[in-house]
Amino acid sequence: PEKQAEKAVHQKKEQSKTKCRKARRRHINLVAEFNHRQRKNIWLETHIWHAKRFHMVKKWGYCLGNSPTEKSYRACYRAMTKHCLLQDLSYYCCLELKGKENELLKQLARICSIDTGLTFQEACCLSGRFEGSLNLYRADRYPEDMLGPVTFIWKPTDGSENRQLWIWVHPALKQDILRELKAIFQCSEPEEVCIAEAITTSIQEEKQVEVVTNLGNKRKKEDKEGEKAVPVKKIIGDGTRDPFQSYSWIARTTGIAISDRSMEILRYRLIGPLSHSVLTETLKAASVQTV
């Protein structure tokens, strides 16, 4: 009995050593583990915070917070009316357009109408000072075949005829709107796509997983899909896009370029009377040095 008791105590000590907090929270383990768990549903950068306080749901290829686990409705209402409430809208997809302003406006006019309100060439929005919102339709099909609502932001002009436009769409609408944009601008895949980059990152991921597996053998054996399609440092793209698909297209004739910037540009919404105060306290102007 004494030997058995000593053996049991010894086993408990070994188990506690392999499961200590320092080992579990080692950075290399967390990165590989988080990427391993995001192969089907992408996490926002605020996922850990939401997972501790919200009931999570899987929608549109993401894992999103749906409802709070405690009665915080009064606190949220109080924040919206008297303080500041922040929402993470990074699951919205960002489509970036680059090219000559005249060419962009000429083709974009085909998928919207002045009868519905603002258009892409509204003066206040075209200057880059304000964000605009409108409904998109299939090319030359207004008022039929509506694609859905979007918001857009022009990068402020620097005097050049080349402009940059960001269009924010809901993930459920991204594929249809992206397909329509590629059609009206006649964009095809560039010669160098992201497949090579995805392969190199996947190789790094396999090496990373090997290291993690050797450290205590905590990870389960690879399943049928394996670890081959998930980069280590950052998962780029939303849950509807394969990492091996290209994310940039260009028109050879006009030079218009379309890029899928989903999950590369984060988006937060601040609601409440103290929103501007929070931003001014958080964001600090950088000192620009001219040579």
Describe the structure.
- This protein has 291 residues and is of the alpha+beta class.
- The chain is built from 10 helices and 11 strands.
- The chain is globular and about 85 Å long.
- 21% of the residues are buried.
- Residues 4-99 form the Pop1 N-terminal domain.
Question: How are the secondary structure elements laid out?
Answer:
Elements: H1 2-18, H2 21-24, H3 27-36, E1 42-43, H4 47-51, E2 54-59, E3 62-68, H5 73-82, E4 85-88, E5 93-100, H6 101-108, H7 123-126, E6 132-137, E7 146-154, E8 162-169, H8 174-184, H9 195-214, E9 248-250, E10 257-260, E11 268-271, H10 275-282
Parallel strand pairs: 1-3
Antiparallel strand pairs: 2-3, 4-11, 5-8, 5-10, 6-7, 7-8, 9-10
Number of H- or I-type helical stretches: 10
What is the N-to-C order of secondary-structure elements (H for helix, E for strand)?
A: HHHEHEEHEEHHEEEHHEEEH
Query: Which residue ranges are poorly predicted, with pLDDT under 50 across at least 5 consecutive positions?
Result: 193-235
User: Strand percentage, roughly?
Assistant: 15-25%
Question: What is the CATH topology of the domain at 93-190 and 246-262?
Answer: Alpha-Beta Plaits
Q: What shape does the CA trace take? A: globular
What summary fits the major beta sheet?
6 strands, antiparallel
Name of the CATH class of the domain at 93-190 and 246-262: Alpha Beta
Spatially, the strands of the biggest sheet line up as 6-7-8-5-10-9
End-to-end separation: 80 Å
Q: Average pLDDT across residues?
A: 78
Helix percentage range: 25-40%
What's the architecture of the domain at 93-190 and 246-262, going by CATH? 2-Layer Sandwich
Please report the total strand number as a whole number.
Answer: 11
Protein name: POP1 protein
Domain Pop1 N-terminal: 4-99
Organism: Notiomystis cincta
InterPro entries: Pop1 (IPR039182), Pop1_N (IPR009723)
